[in-house]
Amino acid sequence: MTSIAVPPSAPEHTGSRLTRVLGAATAVSWVVWLTYGLVLSPADVVQSESVRLFYLHVPLALSAYLGFTVTLVGSILVLRKNSAFWDQMAGAGAEVGLVLAGLVLVTGALWGRPTWGTYWVWDPRITATTLLFLVYLGYLVVRRLDLDAEVRARRAAVFGIVAFINVPITRYSVQIWNSLHQEATLSLTDTEMDGSQLTSFALGAIAMALFTTWLIIHRFRVGWLEYELDRSGLESAILERRGERTATEVV
Amino acid sequence: MFVEYVVAGYGISAIVLAAYVGWTLRRGRALSRQVPADRRRFLRD
Fold first, then answer.
1. What was the pLDDT predicted at A193?
2. Could you say which of A64, A96, B25, B27 would form a disulfide bridge with A100 (CB–CB 3.0 to 4.6 Å)?
3. Which among B6, B21, B31 is the nearest to A50, CB-wise?
4. Among residues A105, A123, A109, which one has the least CA distance to residue A178?
């Protein structure tokens, strides 16, 4: 009796063991975070129930910075190694970061209404976050320019490095300028938060970071498949063209 | 007090993130069927 060895086939999705483990960890952490932050932890004495927006708003912001950091690292490696892998990774980080930054603006506005009495004010932190959002939107536009792939990757990489300057500016805007937005309530040396609030925030930060990592991996793989599809389309076109030329020479 | 803002914040975030995750996974599935198996690098760990 003979057995035929079946070669391992590539999956027809962007999942893998790593993403399944990360996905499971994300699901568990979200259940713990949402149960603790929305149900078990008490309302704030001053902010009442609206303090629960803090457990979402700040983790979203930190995870957006995580996405933009991936773009920075990817962009540097594109310029150093001319790497398509890191170009796709940079793009994935920026797109995921942009979605999260958009939600930072929305949840910030919803938190601002009960806290400050207004959804929007041109405060340094809010203005800096809006600029951050627009700059990374611009970065994604550059990635879609109709240029040679290598030239486009290098231009996007330069944009991705310059764009990151906005991240520390946004982060420290409340310290640099007079701001309506509260200063950082969490620091390594001085924390002004109650124990249950700190726990809710920490759980949110972990849950959102796990989710962001999981999502960036999936988005990277989608980008990689788009890249390979473009490349195989280009190669087929070249082969077709060569075939036509050979046929003409024979005639 | 202010529960409506909390519900709106978490609700909008859940909808946007679910839509983006759904789009990403669906696009990954569709593309991986079009790309030849030997070119689907980085889809395995």
1. 73
2. A64
3. B6
4. A123
